[in-house]
Amino acid sequence: MRESEEAVQDLIKLKTVVEKRVTTFVSLFFSYSITYYVQRGDPDDSISGSWGIVSVFCLKNVVLVVPTVVKAGTTLHLACKYELDGAPLYSVKFYQGDQEFYRYVPKDAPPTKVFPLPAVQVDIYESNSSVVTLNDVQKELTGVYKCEVSADAPLFHTVIRSSHLVVVEEPREQPVIRVEKIKYVLGERIRANCTSRFGFPAANLTFYINNIKVLYIKTLYHHLQN
Questions:
Q1: Beta pairing class for 192-195 and 176-179
Q2: What PANTHER family does the annotation carry (predicted)?
């Protein structure tokens, strides 16, 4: 009987430690599963007691999927993946920088809401609880994007993820190269100017002489406004 009482006391202490370590965003439920019997005395005299985690509700594995580079004028899909694992969803929000432009709240009617933002064209019919679609993206949309996922009561747990995106605008014209004069003598320095306009980010310029890439060249870049 004494051994059984000690076992129960150990069980209570262990359960107390577990309860103290439970955080505000995890809900734990306990059930009976282990029975301790008295080794001596009346066989009908038994003590039972146990503890165990039946289920854990939490928001986890939140990932923002954003392409590193997209071409200007195309359609962009931003995907915010997450696992609720039994937790109720409160909201999903998308930001460009610190400016919110899309929100999904399942309890609202309608559940989707768009906030006006320069150059941001949200396709509401192609957006949902985890994906937002932007049409005709332009270079002004280059920057950091964030998604914020929040679980509803009783968790009230929020996770934010971010990723950087570059919208590439190809040059509208072929590069133009100019030299100071047409003829040079052996050993003379050649100064050439190559201009590539209307591109974003600035073009990477490579020089060739008779179709052979110039391995060493002293280059000075001037960035011009389009």
A1: antiparallel
A2: BEAT PROTEIN, BEAT VI
3-class secondary-structure state, position 202: coil
DSSP 205-222: ---EETTEE-S-------
Query: Where do the CATH 2.60.40.10 domains begin and end in the chain?
Result: 60-168
Look at the block and give the residue holding tokens 């001037």: 222
**Sequence-ordered alpha helix ranges (H) in the chain:** 2-20
Tens digit of each residue's pLDDT (9 = 90 or more) over 166-176: 999 888 888 88
Task: Return the amino acid letter for 124.
Answer: I
* 60-168 under CATH 2.60.40.10, yes or no: yes
Evaluate the omega torsion of the peptide bond into residue 154 and state whether it is cis, within 30 degrees of 0.
Answer: yes
- Phi/psi at 8 (5° precision): -65, -40
158: tokens are: 């929020």
Residue with tokens 């103290």: 20
Q: For residue range 30-66, list pLDDT tens digits in order.
A: 333 333 444 444 555 544 454 454 445 577 889 999 9
Question: Cα separation of 220 and 137, whole Å?
Answer: 31
User: What value, to the nearest 5°, has the Cα angle with vertex 160 and ends 154 and 163?
Assistant: 160
Please give the Cα distance from 99 to 57 (Å, whole number). Answer: 30
Yes or no: say if 117 and 48 are a contact pair by the CB < 8 Å rule: no
Bridging pattern class, strands 112-114 and 99-104: antiparallel
Tokens 């570059």 sit on residue: 166
Q: What is the DSSP string of 138-199?
A: -GGG-EEEEEEEEE-TTT--EEEEEEEEEEEB--SS--EEEES-S---TT----EEEE--S-
